[in-house]
Amino acid sequence: MSRAPHALLWDMDGTIVNSDPLWERAATELLAEHNATITRETGLSMVGLSLWKAAEILQQHGVALSADEIVERKVRRVLELYSQTEVSWRPGARETLAAAKHAGIPNVMVTMALSSIGNAVAQLLPENTFSKVLGADQVTAHKPHPEPYLRGAALAGADIRDCLIFEDSVTGIASGAASGGVTVGVRNLVDISNCEAHIIVDSLQEYDLETWFAVFNKYRGTEPVPGGYNQGAKL
């Protein structure tokens, strides 16, 4: 068996759960209250950003609230939507999380949502699926800065070079790659084809834990490259 990573570090929105539509709905409702709109392209540009950066964009498009007020309103609304709708999980995420837990490898959530939302999602999974949850309110610098993933590794008691990172956004992949962990981009809403990563895949569903161990062993200590080393090919 290949050497296992010491921890798996996970983005949440768009990587574990298909929650971007919930954030989009919360933003659209706020915009409507202020007789404002944004384009589809502007909406996609907010994917992976911290809540406060996204709030700045909404302010620029006519939402006359402070950034903190926008964040509070969006978080409250998304938590309501989680309680009212069935959660849509990203393909293969729960299976990979469960396999890692079974193998004794810590899963750490590293999200740019608030920790309250991260914990709410973690509670929808079997107990102790995540050993730790790290939210945007618990770090000083947000993605694409490497701090979130460096902190996530520290929470797992691991060296970042011994961690495997799963991300779906441009800013998140940049954060993971800059941290020094082996970074896997998972395609979803935004185009990540040219992101500097170690591997870019269409779905986690296609690969088992042993394959991810092999990826980790092959690319540990190497620099990420645009489009990943696999360049769109199957692993």
From TrEMBL:
Single GO molecular function: sugar-phosphatase activity
Signal peptide start and end residues: none
UniProt keyword annotations, A-Z: Hydrolase
Highest taxon of the lineage: Bacteria
Cross-referenced Pfam families: HAD_2
Gene3D superfamilies in alphabetical order: HAD superfamily/HAD-like, Putative phosphatase, domain 2
Name by which UniProt lists this protein: HAD superfamily hydrolase (TIGR01509 family)
Organism listed in the record: Canibacter oris
